[in-house]
Amino acid sequence: MALVFIDKPEWLVPLFLGSFVVLALLSSAWLIYFFSRPPLKDFKVTEPIGVKTILKRSAPMAISAVSFLLMQSLDVLMLKHFGDYATVAVYSIAVKLTLLLSVALASVNAVLAPKIAEDYNRQDYLALAQKVKRSTQLIFVTTAPAILLLALGSEWILAWFGSAYVLAKTPLLILLCGQGVNTLCGSVGVYLNMTNKQKTFQWIIASALLVNVGLNTYLIPKFGMNGAAWATAGSMMAWNIVAVVYVYQKDGIKTFLTW
Length: 259
Prior knowledge:
Helices cover 80% and strands 0% of the residues. It is mainly α and 259 residues long. It has 2 domains: 1-37; 50-251, no CATH class.
């Protein structure tokens, strides 16, 4: 917003990339400080924590994160391959509007992740189930009104960006369907990562990425923006449902919405 007011749009890319550098430096400095402190009194190390141990735990999470990020951008990239910049610009607005809904999910996940890990390692499965249930309810309560608002006011909201962007109404509604299922399934990805099932989640997400590529390749040439939206929403719904079923069958934990 500041760049708009001072009329310096050419600084957008350097500042955008610079923000990641600042984040990396600050987070690294905090970690160095945190690990230089004496360990907590009640903290007991059951195995040496070396580079190999860290990579064994974190590598599947990294692969899952990369696969997830690719699924969020492949539709735009492949739409440009089969279409033009005007189509991409219109479709990208629908994508960004639906990504705003992920803020509630990310916020809840940030708080929930360490609590899931703590309860799981203490084998307090009752408390774990209750936390997962409440978090899914919170995600639904905070996200459902926004989904409803975007769905009912789609034309009006898209018109803010210009009359041409109203063409993104159908893709927006399709993407909202995918986000709706994502909301109903709760923090299933975080649950898998925090309960020593990160390798399973890695394969679920990687498989969904392949499905995403296949659907984009088939649907975009036939249906354009709508095809890209169905590919993204379909792969999102697929991995969420598969993950929810796996968790329920494996641990008996209902990460999906219940009251």
